[in-house]
Write a structure and sequence with these properties.
Chain A is mainly α. Chain A contains five helices and no strands. The longest helix of chain B is centred in the first third of the chain and has 23 residues. The chains are: A mainly alpha (about 80), B alpha+beta (about 200).
Chain lengths: ~80, ~200
């Protein structure tokens, strides 16, 4: 998927869970879900489930381990979409 | 080392729907899921096990300086609702939990639980920044009284893994403490046997 379109989709997914508005406004691929957006870890599970639903993919726990940033999420989504 | 996690049960009920499809399976082992299903108050068991995993993970990050998001790999054993252990990557952490009407608070220890200051309190404002600052200020005040050193010489800064570290006159202190906040609750724990470098 095209990079900016993917970032925009991820931005919509994380919005309900963010606890730092400024970091959300300036979200980029370098944004960290926990350090920057302050998403609590229980809601990080929701982010991953929402990503699965929106892109119609399944993320194994071993892939989930690294999903702490926008960049990491983009890599995993692209990998799963390519394998479809 | 010490790890500390708190869950505000009322806020958790609003923020997280653990009954959504695949949620339990992402987070809990089969054995843990059966503990939840067979519990009288299922949501309490969900957050008890969650807080054990979180508290243990907070030690792991201090120990290894590595962040991982895989709560299912931290496996819980319960002796009672107050005592248990968590295993992760070959480490065992002993846990002690306290369950109130509207909170669950767990301490994890990487060695025999030693003398610890544990303080739990309510915070009226649920904004992340206010809470984070309030908990850090309370911890600094408690530490300043304990070690009889001026509050102004103490500072907390997060390292690259978001682990809070304490500095005295700019010198990083190696002793272990852990802070947590969620909903209307904040908590900190200090392992007071740790040495102090001035």
């Amino acid at each position: 998927m095209e990079k900016q379109a993917l970032i925009a989709k991820l931005k919509t997914i994380v919005e309900p869970y963010i606890q730092d508005e400024d970091a959300f406004k300036s979200l980029s691929e370098n944004t960290d879900f926990v350090k920057d957006l302050k998403i609590n870890s229980a809601n990080l599970v929701d982010v991953i489930l929402d990503v699965e639903d929106v892109f119609d993919i399944r993320i194994e726990n071993v892939d989930m381990e690294k999903m702490l940033s926008v960049k990491a999420a983009m890599d995993i989504v692209n990998e799963k979409l390519a394998a479809k | 080392m010490i790890g500390n996690d708190i869950v505000d049960l009322k806020i958790a009920a609003l923020e997280s729907n653990w009954k959504r499809p695949r949620f339990l399976d992402k987070v809990f082992s089969k054995q843990e899921q059966s503990l939840i299903i067979n519990s009288e108050i299922q949501s309490q068991m969900v957050w008890l096990l969650w807080s054990m995993k979180e508290a243990a993970y907070k030690i792991y990050v201090q120990q290894y300086g590595e962040r991982i998001f895989n709560p299912k790999k931290l496996t819980c054993e319960l002796i009672s609702t107050r005592e248990g252990s968590v295993n992760f990557n070959g480490n065992q952490y002993v846990t002690k939990s306290e369950i109130g009407d509207d909170f669950v608070n767990t301490m994890a220890y990487s060695e025999e639980p030693n003398t610890t200051i544990i303080h739990r309190f309510k915070i009226e404002d649920t904004s992340y920044k206010t809470q984070s600052n309030a908990v850090k200020q309370k911890l600094l005040k408690s530490f300043s009284e304990l070690k009889k050193i001026p509050l102004k010489n103490l500072e907390i800064k997060n390292d690259k893994n978001s682990v809070p570290r304490l500095f005295h006159n700019g010198i990083k202190q190696s002793f272990s403490f852990s802070i947590a906040h969620h909903g209307f609750y904040g908590a900190y724990a200090i392992s007071i046997n740790s040495s102090f470098q001035s």
